[in-house]
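Researcher: Good morning. I'm working through a list of sequences from a screen, and I'd like to move beyond sequence-only analysis. For each chain I'm collecting a predicted structure so we can compare shapes side by side. This is the next one on the list. No need for commentary yet; just the structure.
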Amino acid sequence: MTVRYGRFAGPLVLAGAALLIISAFLSWSYDPGPLGNVRPYGNPAPTQYFAIILGVLGLAFWFGGGPLRKIFTWFDTAKALKPLGYGAVVFAVLVILSITLESSGLINVNPGGWLALVGAVLMALGGHVVPERDHADPLRSRASSWVEILVIVAVLASALFLTAYALDLESGGEFVTLLAAMGAVAFAAAKGGAFSWLRVAAAKHRQVLMLGAVAVAFLFPFTQNGSDANMSIATQVIIFATTALGLNIVVGLAGLLDLGYIAFLGAGAYVAAMMSGAATATIGWTPPFLVVALIGMCVSATLGLIIGSPTLRVSGDYLAIVTLAFGEIFRIAVNNMDGGNGPDLTHGPNGIAGIPELNLFGFNFGQTHEIAGIPLTRYANYYFLLLLLAALVITVFVRLNNSRIGRGWVAIREDERAAEAMGVNVFGLKLLAFAGGAALAGLAGTIKAHQDLAVSPDQYVFLESAFLLAAVVLGGMGTVAGVLVGATLLKLMPEKLRFLSDYRLLMFGMLLVLMMRFRPEGLLPSSRRQLEFHGDDEELADEIQELHVETEEAQA
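Model: Good morning. Structure tokens for this chain:
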């Protein structure tokens, strides 16, 4: 089909991209309410700029395989056009659905919206029939170090801008269309080989990447102008991501399916609450927070050993059932420790409220501070503390992953019997994975208790464990960046999809199913997992293996 209709690819792509760009200058909606007022002519709203970006990329990818081929020698524009076109169709459909739902009728969609849909369909058809082109291998393409560094900085700066912009969006329709547009660009870039090139460049300039990532994370609160709402979401995202990284040790490295991991976070939180000195605290001793954090880690690690010791002889589905039961046992136990059914340690379903703000070395995290005229509220203060926690957890994870212990975990995950036959202490390493992951979760829980100012049993239900596991699998098991991206999406999306009310979990589940169908290895998988899922495709498997070798050479 590609060969037969390939001659139509150029006109279709060019016409579709042109219509997308033109549609942005027309009215999309009769009602000025939807999508940040896309009603005026000649004055594109931010959502309409996404259509311009998709159209411009369509033109760039087409000409990149023709007159501008020398510029795109390392990028496979033919492979990138297809996902870009399909993504543009999804974007245009979501635009029409948003206008229809927010303005109570399909009749309120103006010609500009329909023109964007027609342009997206034409571009998708052109991308579907575009003939294959010969391009240089992205893995073998080389650029000067300064160019690679500038690209890394530009990607990180774009991530900071898009995150700040997405959090500021009040309309659910705007957020969904932004997600669709950025998803189309990301998948097109992945198909074209941009991520493979970027991965090798990042491995060559790891220090630049690390410094840039730290700078982006540090500067984020300064883009919010003292917004408590956005910083509250950001702190919850970091707590969730940090806990998911701890679970990544258990699931991603050791291959142990844990469905009750949220209990370890809850254990740390309850330890901090009971020793916080609050009016409702049940333990009179109030040591310094650093001591409380160590106690919380030890308690969570002990629970990990308790659940691990008698159950790690089982694996797979049976281990999942046992850990699920442990999570429910923890929730029911803290719910019953109210003085009536058991010792009064947690106040039962009422929980422990009125937890005081943290005060470390004279710094009160509950007070608003000002830097360069920008107010930093309590959430920003906790955000910086959680960044330090995330850096600690990432360091621990990376060091363990690259150590002999990490290789032992991977061996157990791949084939437990073979690992045991080769002399790997399977039982000991499994216990270490459970205890280590639980300790990291407990540490995060001690900070979460003070940031939330209260703890209660309904915060640590099975659904939270399921979300943590979904973040690890969705992002990419065994990787740091993948889990961070997966955790951010899974925590941010439900907050921004509240306008769907009772349907948001349904839509969220559908997105996960589609993700598992079309990219089961995760958004940012390790090379090993890519080979697991694409080993039957010899060409792709060779490319992944080559990327793995190139990355190792760049790191060396």
